[in-house]
Amino acid sequence: MTTARTGWRILAVALALAAAACMIVWSDRSTRDASPDPGVATAASTRPIAESPDPAQGRLRVAALPRPVRLTIPVLGVATELVRLGLQPDGTVEVPTDPALAGWYHLGMPPGGPGSAVILGHVDSADGPAVFAGLAEVEPGSRIRVGLDDGSTATFVVRTVRTYANADFPARRVYVGHGRRELNLVTCGGAYEADRGGYQANVVVNAVLVAPNRATRQ
pTM higher than 0.85 for the full model? Predict the structure, then answer.
């Protein structure tokens, strides 16, 4: 119980820090004309996700799962290598340094594992559209494929595409999930307002696992 309570205290702090994260990422754009920071949603949860009541057992099981290395969204023509993301010193989630690449939040569940996996990407950059520029246009029923480091592929089907105001970002739902094997893709969205710090919303694409394909090599 002590471990669980501690985990939720950490989560509460992370959520408080992350409430305006998308705006924070863009906070310098209004003062720098030549090289704005790329926009990406950065709300984060640090609650450990375990399959069993024993946190140590849960961590061992999660550690044994294959890690994601590539993301494909056929309907958007997106095919990107995945970088690994953790937390920044202020408690918000890291973002990819390259706007052409998406990143997996490695403190959560790997795609295909029993819980919510999160992949983040930039919507744009100083040079134009970024890897998740068209994410808000994805429709329910679209397929998303994640290549894993054991050579297999996890296939997901999109359930919902929603835009949340920064203050209403459902970090617990996105990062902790509902117990389903699901994938959440996250980027900035909504209106860009320089005088308010940047993008005012986050786009979240939620998808559920339909084919782990463990026997199928890429």
Answer: no
CB 182 within 8 A of CB 209: yes
| Domains of the chain and any CATH numbers | 2-211 (2.40.260.10)
Distances in Å between the Cα of 129 and the Cα atoms of 23, 28, 142 are 18, 18, 21
Among residues 45, 37, 43, 53, the alpha carbon closest in space to that of 19 is found at 43
Q: Is 171 helix (H, G, I), strand (E, B) or coil?
A: helix
How far is the C-alpha of 121 from the C-alpha of 15, rounded, in Å? Answer: 19
DSSP string, 97-135: SSTT-EEEETTSPPTTSSSEEEEE--SEETTEE-TTTTG
- Please state, in angstroms and rounded to a whole number, the distance separating the CA atoms of residues 147 and 155: 9
Tokens of 63: 């550690």
Q: Is 29 helix (H, G, I), strand (E, B) or coil?
A: helix
Task: Provide the residue-wise pLDDT of the chain in tens; the chain has 218 residues.
Answer: 444 444 434 443 343 334 334 533 433 333 333 333 434 444 333 222 222 234 444 455 577 899 999 999 999 999 999 999 999 998 888 999 999 999 999 999 999 999 999 999 999 988 999 999 999 999 999 999 999 999 999 999 999 999 999 899 999 899 987 778 999 999 999 888 888 878 889 999 999 999 876 544 44
